[in-house]
Amino acid sequence: MNNSIFAKLKKQKLAVLGLFIISVFTLAGIFAPILSPHDPYAVDLTQKLLKPSAEFPLGTDQLGRCILSRLIHGIRTSLTTAIMATVLMLLIGVPLGIMAGYAGGWLDNAIMRLVDIASTFPSSLLALAVVGVLGPSTVNIMLVFVVLWWAPFARIVRSMVIKLKEKEFVLAAIAAGSSQTTIILKHITLNSISPIIVLATLRIAAVIMHIAAFSFIGLGSQPPIADWGVMLSDSRQYLTSYPLMLLWPGLAIMLAVFAFNVLGEGLNDALMPASGYAAAAKEAEEQYG
User: Fold this and answer.
1) Beta-carbon neighbour count of residue 15 at 10 Å?
2) What fold does the segment set 3-30+73-288 form as a domain?
3) Global pTM?
4) What is the pLDDT of residues 164-199, one digit of tens each?
């Protein structure tokens, strides 16, 4: 990201706020063992459902566990899962998109038919089928989304490659005798980074929300794992008697999704002048998200 783009991003107040929230969450997750005031898995029924205090800043849950400690450790589960899933989507979608756009012909048709299948298959239905066969777990749910959600990356990258390979600088590199590997990596992939970053940022937000939803209904992370979706699920029976149990994990999920979404919006606005495809990344997220 060059200085002009960074300067434009700094003018996007919501994007800067989103980046700040993400940074705080990331640092809290990295230093969770140090920042957590208590063991997130320590059960003490004598201190269950306590209100916020100096000892327990956000109170305790139905098993007497520190809610703040579980929230902090839940960052590791939620953000790590979302980032890993998005990285796997990139590793699948970007190379296939480049191959389809650059090679064309039968390979392009074959890859795009796979993209069409992945784009139209209902992810929730596949997740239920996978969980029914392999059992509930975050890994199984994550793999379902990876298998299906690489498609928007492949589609947008293919579109960019088709346009980029006709540009003068690419044709000049071909005329100069540059290898196809050099052309693809240096001249095409590097000029495709902007929309990929935008789409990946928006996709992380979607993964966080979906993983939390599946954990909430018991198909993702399983108790006693410190996970925001699990914490929401635990709080259901205490919705009226102790609503704070629902408030804190719900607020954490909302802030994380908000942060990645506004950062993605800000990156889209900042990168748009530098790359005519950044807005297309946002459109792809809206279409397939």
Assistant:
1) 24
2) MetI-like fold (1.10.3720)
3) 0.84
4) 877 777 778 777 777 777 777 777 877 778 888 888
